[in-house]
Amino acid sequence: MNLLMFNSIVIGAMVLMAICLSKLSPLSDRYLKVFYLFAAGNLLAIVALDIIPEAIKEIGILGMLAFMLIGGLIFELMHEFIHIVLPNKKHVSAISIGVALGAHGLPEGMALGIILSVTAMKGYWNIIIIFLLHIFPEMIMFQQALKENKSNKKVKIIILSIIIFIPAILGMLISVRFGEKVQPFVGIFSAVSSGFIYMLVVKELIFRNIKQLKIKDTLIIILGSVLAGVALM
């Protein structure tokens, strides 16, 4: 399997996934909050067990903390800017989730690309399956955020759902093309994206939805999803 075939399969599967998930009905407000909190736990598990260790391995603990802080500040500035330009909270939530997932996808794609550059054909299929399983809940979360705004048409939801994962594809292509030369940048982008994800989890997935649920229920949901994320990894 060559790189062109690999990317064709991944993109085709992403398009099919986006179309199928777009047919899901919007969740009720209460269930949507439960889903967002569950997603928050999963993302926390990914950041703690995958992204941060990768960043520490490449740029050290201090480097990871510095670039994670930069990522968090960039996300906060972006979040406040969107609030000013688009006062509608439903727009802000969807855009924030999309930007954070897109930023997270670039270093993830670069890490996968490094593996792709040295793997055999059987390894390609394993990576495809892992990648699609990983983006499945993220795509559901993003589409549900888009569906909160009833003016968003199905075609728009499908297109945006594909666009936010393009950075992951680009990351793979960059790594395969330049090989070990991009290895240090994987750590930098991983740290920055962990700052994005952390701020997304805190501002959009936890604080925004915790008011509607009891603290005990919230903690149980987040803990359960963290354990589920650990099991999947």
Automatic annotation (TrEMBL):
Name of the featured protein: ZIP family metal transporter
Domain of life: Bacteria
Claim: Cell inner membrane is one of the keywords in the record: no
Signal peptide: none
This protein's UniProt keywords: Membrane, Transmembrane, Transmembrane helix
Organism, as annotated: Oceanirhabdus seepicola
Membrane-spanning residues: 6-22, 34-53, 59-78, 112-136, 157-176, 182-201
